[in-house]
What does this fold into?
Amino acid sequence: QVQLVESGGGLVQAGGSLRLSCAASGRTLSSPFSSYTMGWFRQAPEKGREFVAAISGSGGSTYYADSVKGRFTISRDNAKNTGYLQMNSLKPEDTATYYCGTTRGPYGSGWSSWGQGTQVTVSS
It folds into this structure.
């Protein structure tokens, strides 16, 4: 499994922005980071984990949940083994623990590795 560490969460007012990072440990990668699809998910209290966004290994393809489309942008820097989630125009309903995940397969494959999560709280 790939070791993933999220960072960048915090408390922000509605309308504000945050940038989350997801760093993959190079020593746990079985192949170049560019061979992994990366995704972001979130889980609010008493709710299931929901998909937020995903990006292909090359970064050429991105996918978004309807609820964040136009507000969030997923990106990656394969040289740094790191993925990002830029979150703009945040809403109170975006409050959740955000997790990143990876898979060796394409988008739609089962996610094989997860980070520990980073808390995002949006106040109204």
The chain has no helices and eleven strands. The mean pLDDT is 96.
